Amino acid sequence: MKYLKKIIPFAVSIYFVILFCYAAISKVFDFENFQHQISASPLLNGFSQFLPYTIIIVEFFIAGLLCYRKTRTTGLIGSLVLMLIFTGYIALLLITSDNLPCSCGGILEKMSWHQHLYFNMGCVILSIMALGLNLRYSRPAE
Predict the structure, then answer these.
(1) What is the pLDDT of residue 6?
(2) Which of 6, 15, 50, 86 is 20 to 30 A off residue 43, Cα-Cα?
(3) DSSP, residue by residue, 58-116
(4) How many helices and strands, by DSSP H and E, does the chain display?
(5) What is the pLDDT of residues 129-138, one digit of tens each?
(6) 75, 134 Cβ separation under 8 angstroms
(7) Helix or strand or coil: residue 38?
């Protein structure tokens, strides 16, 4: 059972590496559209000059942190924070806006806003579970 508890953070890390790399690469390949969608967002339009670059860099950076055992905890914390930000943004848009531009890439762009919210909430739960297990079971024996 202890082995399974060590595998779960690793598997969740792989999931987030794939998710963040896929999302970032999709945004890079359709960068003009991504930048336009951010500028069309009622909450983000003031940040449209630097935010697209920042999001892509942060997604790649967190994916990189998740690739190594020594930085996995930091990567899982980054994943949790990033998913909380994305989830909060979606929830806030759903509450406050009628115009909902999607700045996601690839398959995620095909989801409805409510589906996307539930997907992100699931990712938040996964990251909390993985982070908790990683903190508990990845420490070296004393």
Answers:
(1) 82
(2) 15
(3) HHHHHHHHHTSGGGHHHHHHHHHHHHHHHHHHHHHHHHH-S-------GGGGGS-HHHH
(4) 5, 0
(5) 999 999 988 7
(6) no
(7) helix
